[in-house]
Amino acid sequence: MVALSVSEVMADEKTKCSLGYGKPPWIFKGRALYQLHLVKSKIARASIPKEFRLVEAFGYTLGGFFLASYEDSPAGVFDELVVIAGIVWNPPTSCAWAARVLVSSGDACDHGRKDVGLPSQVAKFSKKITAIPRQRKSKFNGFLDMIGLGTASSSTKDCMDVLVTETNGPSATDICNIKLTTSVPGVKFDKWKGPAIKMSLPSFSIECRVRAVQAAKVSGPSSPPKHDTEESQSQLKLKTVEPSSRELLDEGQNLSISVMLSRPILALELSCLKMQVEAPVVVSQHSKSRFN
Predict the structure, then answer these.
(1) How crowded is the C-beta side of 28, counted as CA atoms within 13 Å?
(2) What is the distance between the alpha carbons of residues 252 and 246, in angstroms, rounded to a whole number?
(3) DSSP structure class, residue 139
């Protein structure tokens, strides 16, 4: 995950140990897709506390999402979708603001909230994989193949649809559908996974192989008509009166959908991922997250 916000007071050591997650640092292993979007500033501001300054230019900030599948973690095996509203200035540096964190297990939700300080919610990740015919290769694709952006030697490719449905007690709400396209490895060839990198920040460090990939296609709970523009997709209702707790949840979902439907500019595949997470540092004593 990127440098994410702290939204809750951390549990004391006794509570942490009783939950069985151990003491920090916590190790997460798996793979992920980190996709950057251009998010309208007015959408991002609705998800970020007023005391933080949004890093923006020409009415946009840099947001997107982080979709991960962990095979080993303190909370076991789980999937995670982090919706990143934008970049905020937190001197002496900037960080990405996690507006919504959806995880596929209750243990991962508890760990995220009580130990890592994330506004985690439980969700269902429904995955469907289909093999589709590959388009005819262009003679100019050789270089793209070499750097991992082209097509493999196989005549088909796998397309995975990930439907993310947030659960809240007996109710369930579809948040988005993410369409991922990955190459089917041939008999003799496999995709280059990209260079190995290591990055360290105050609260966590990452080791992985990284490469640029085709951006995932994101659709909302119901796909908008093809003639809809980015503006019409993002114009979801923002309450002007004091909303109830239920309305707050709906607003948070709407804002997350707006971020997910924003225009993608870069997608990075993180494989062989190993993330070491430290206990977070509270940077502001603002009111509790609206997603509690």
Answers:
(1) 24
(2) 10
(3) T
3 state DSSP class of 240: coil
Nearby residues of 171 by Cβ (< 8 Å), 6 or more positions away: none
pLDDT in tens, 79-127: 999 999 999 987 878 889 999 999 999 999 999 998 888 889 999 999 9
For residue 92, whether the previous peptide bond is cis, meaning omega lies within 30 degrees of 0, is yes
CA 93, 208, 33: angle at the middle one, nearest 5? Answer: 80
Task: Tell me the sheet residues that pair with 211.
Answer: 269
Phi and psi based region of residue 30 (left: phi greater than 0; alpha: psi -120 to 50; beta: remaining): left
Q: What is the pLDDT of residues 213-259, one digit of tens each?
A: 999 999 998 644 343 444 444 444 433 334 443 444 578 889 999 99
Q: Are 73 and 31 in contact (CB under 8 A)?
A: no
**Distance from C-alpha of 135 to C-alpha of 156, rounded to nearest angstrom:** 9
Q: What is the pLDDT of residues 167-226, one digit of tens each?
A: 988 889 999 999 997 643 333 445 678 999 999 877 789 999 999 999 999 999 864 434
* Nearest-5° Cα angle at 100, 97 to 106: 130
CA distances from 264 to 96, 245, 252, 268 (A): 16, 31, 21, 11
Q: Which residue has the tokens 């966590």?
A: 204
Question: pTM to 2 decimals?
Answer: 0.75
129 near 163, Cβ under 8 Å?
Answer: no
Place of tokens 């702290």: 6
CA distance 29 to 97: 22
Sequence-ordered strand ranges (E) for 92-228: 93-103, 120-133, 156-168, 171-183, 196-200, 204-212, 217-219
User: Per DSSP, what are the bridge partners of residue 157?
Assistant: 132, 183
DSSP state for residue 129 in the 8-state scheme: E
